[in-house]
Amino acid sequence: MNDRIEFRSMTNVNGEIRPTAEARVPVMDRGFLYGDSIYEVFRTYRGIPLFHDEHWARFENSAALSHLRIGLAKDEMTEQIRRTVQASGAPAAQQDVYVRYIVTRGEGPIDLHPAEDLETTFVVIVNELPYLKPEFFTHGLKVAVARTLRNPGASLNPNIKGGNYLNNVLGIIEARRHGADDSLMLNEAGLVTEASNSNVFFVIDGELVTPSQVAANLRGLTKAAVHEVCRAHGLPSHEREIPIDAVLGATEFFFTSSIREVTPVAELRIGEGVERSFPAGGGPVTRRVARLYADYVEDYLATHEDLSLF
């Protein structure tokens, strides 16, 4: 008799939980029609959601910037997430998960201007953690600078973590066509902004730097944690404008995100015939930051066991 518990992806739409393949939102939902939605993504470690409070604070900020009513309090959303995680079998299987929670402006007529009486829709998706190739960490990512430019911050605030991701989709399609794993996106002034869905750090002239808000990029939670842990251990890190030409002089390059953590970049394609290589598996600063971040996560887990979804 095989009594092994198996995980399966589950999705919660307005409180109704189904296997993800069977979950549905109405075709007239503005999240589907216009990408008129906001979301957050986190992963669990031993069932504990990383940066739980910080994700919710950013979610509320996205809602405020996009004039969208969330419709659920933090505790209500947490309970819906918990219900969905339980239904997935992850706690019994002791399997950590990827969680995405979404609120759309709701279902309504095909009209750009939203009706005043719309009822928001919430969705919680619980999936397996995305598979990351071991060589991404032992060797590093291959990255290409996209010709597609990042949306100007004055046109679409990058700190609205919203459902319209076409700009990023175009960037990564370009990168994959050039044999890269991900894209590095510039703005109209030729400044580095971010990758398709990660923040970026460089070591330039011996200094650890990341693009500032002048270039318009998402205030990443992992990026903020890296700043914090570096400061605590005497490793200065700075935010500044980074022209793409400055990257030619970089000696190290890495990504940060809640799923990828700290991931080294080994190769960067800047244009036809212009490529830059970085130390395989990350240089000394990248490796140190990765270790410090891993310790930071362990400290977080030790002080947030009460948040466990298991």
Q: How would you briefly describe this protein structure?
A:
With 310 residues, the protein is α+β, with helices and mostly antiparallel strands.
Give the helix/strand layout.
Layout: E1 10-13, E2 16-19, H1 30-34, E3 37-45, E4 48-49, H2 52-65, H3 74-88, H4 90-93, E5 97-104, E6 121-128, H5 135-138, E7 141-145, H6 166-177, E8 182-186, E9 192-195, E10 199-204, E11 207-211, H7 221-232, E12 237-240, H8 244-247, E13 250-257, E14 261-271, E15 274-277, H9 284-303
Parallel strand pairs: 7-8, 7-14, 11-12
Antiparallel strand pairs: 1-2, 1-6, 3-4, 3-5, 5-6, 8-9, 10-11, 10-13, 13-14, 14-15
Structure description:
There is one protein chain. Helix content is 29%, strand content 28%. The chain has nine helices and 15 strands. The protein folds into two domains: 10-129, D-amino Acid Aminotransferase, Chain A, domain 1, CATH 3.30.470; 135-298, D-amino Acid Aminotransferase, Chain A, domain 2. The strands form two sheets. Strands 7, 8, 9, 10, 11, 12, 13, 14 and 15 form a nine-stranded mixed beta sheet that branches. The chain has a six-stranded antiparallel beta sheet with strand order 2-1-6-5-3-4. The longest helix is centred in the C-terminal third of the chain and has 20 residues, at 284-303.
